[in-house]
Amino acid sequence: MRDAGRDPRAVFAVALAALVIGRGHDASQPAHSLRGQVLRVVDGDTIKVRLDGGRTERVRYIGIDTPESVKPNTPVQCFAKKASHFNTSLVSGRAVTLRTDAEERDRYGRLLAYVYAGGRFVNRELVARGFARTLTIPPNVAHADEFAGLARRAREAGMGLWKACS
Q1: Where are the alpha helices (DSSP H) in 33-120?
Q2: pLDDT tens digits for 35-53?
Q3: Which of 40, 58, 94, 110 is an active site residue?
Q4: Are 36 and 49 in contact (CB under 8 A)?
Q5: Has residue 166 got a pLDDT over 80?
Q6: Measured on CA atoms in the order 155, 25, 90, 86, is the torsion positive or negative?
Q7: How many CB atoms lie within 10 A of CB 26?
Q8: Mean of the pLDDT values across residues 56-84?
């Protein structure tokens, strides 16, 4: 029987586990960080950004969902326009930092990101003020617990969509 400390398979397995656990869902260690300029606010949780370097990306905010205002074949939902306007007030024309999580793109090819503008964490702000609900899609869960707590407080306080759409 081999000594587990010297078995290359065991060493590899331990190293791989440490890498996966270390990469995990630590919000302080984003998968990737990008900078750019917001060209257009699409709706409450989606923007178009020209990244430094010139490439343009459609960016979907991670961990949140605002009511639909521009989805094809879907009527404008309660509080959608207000969420879109609030998002516009936070990011329109501004320089932003985009931080990805474990999965960088959704099935539509959009870049998935936590968005920071002018010292504000935009995803957090939208949930905390009642403009968005949480939408947790693993493996992008770095802020899931934080967003859940903020959404609960906004709902309990009857803020934003929690008051208007109940």
Answers
A1: 80-91
A2: 999 999 999 999 999 999 9
A3: 110
A4: yes
A5: no
A6: negative
A7: 10
A8: 92
Active site annotation includes 60: yes
Q: What is the pTM of this model?
A: 0.81
Q: Which two tokens stand for residue 32?
A: 């990737």
Radius of gyration of the chain (CA): 19
- Is 58 an annotated catalytic residue? no
Q: Strands, DSSP E only, in 88-163?
A: 95-99, 111-117, 120-121, 133-135
Sign of the C-alpha dihedral computed for residues 144, 124, 35 and 60 taken in this order: positive
Which of 57, 60, 124, 133 is catalytic? The answer is 60
Query: Residue 59 carries which side chain, given as an amino acid letter?
Result: V
For 150, phi then psi, to 5°, come to: -65, -40
Q: Read off the amino acid at residue 161.
A: L
pLDDT of 23 > 50? The answer is no
- Among candidate residues 57, 68, 124, 125, the one labeled active-site is 68
Q: For residue 70, what pLDDT is reported?
A: 87
Spatial CB neighbours of 116, under 8 Å, sequence gap ≥ 6: 96, 97, 98, 99, 122
What is residue 51's DSSP assignment?
E
Amino acid making up residue 153: R
